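sanity check this fold:
=====
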Amino acid sequence: MDERQVSDPHVPDPHVPDPHVPGPHVRATHVTAPQVPDRLLIRTALPAEVGAIAGLHVRARSTYYPDGLPPAEFDWREAWRESIERPRGQVLCAVEEGRIVAVASFRVPDGGRADTVKLFQFHVDPDHWRRGIGTALHAACVEQWVADGHRAAVLDVHVDNRRAQDFYARQGWFPDPELPPAEGDHHLDLRYTVRPDTAGETPATP
């Protein structure tokens, strides 16, 4: 999925706090579910990890462009750094045996409805597909959206990324009725119900 990618190995820096040990402001959840590694850790990503995250991003993104990955239009490493450091944005990562194997980035878009969050990025390292990691990370995202009081989530997915479209459908996403695809669109807009509207409750203002 793309926001609408630089591969650096993750090399620990002895002068930087270990990013795989949650600090006082890092949300962390150990996941133990069927088909998920015993010690999969889902937590907030750190600025020191932008190289590993950008590398994962380009590996995942390269899998769904039939004509090869198009030239990068801007610095994805810096874009990930901005996402991690954005005060009102969140980047969650799934860590297995000290290595980031999946990442998700979401926030309320500027000028958007306060009750609707957008999932801008969601990637699982291709070497770790079909192991339940994406499902576990998605569940962690939904948990956070519920805690933040969101009613709905939206995303856009590349039309050639059938694997991602099938994954999102299994998680309960559906075509956004407010944004039907137009001819020539390269992305499909999907929507997810975090909390159904409650009768008589005052809706959030845009």
Notes: The chain has a mean pLDDT of 80. Residues 115 and 150 are 4 Å apart (CA to CA). The chain has one domain: 28-193.
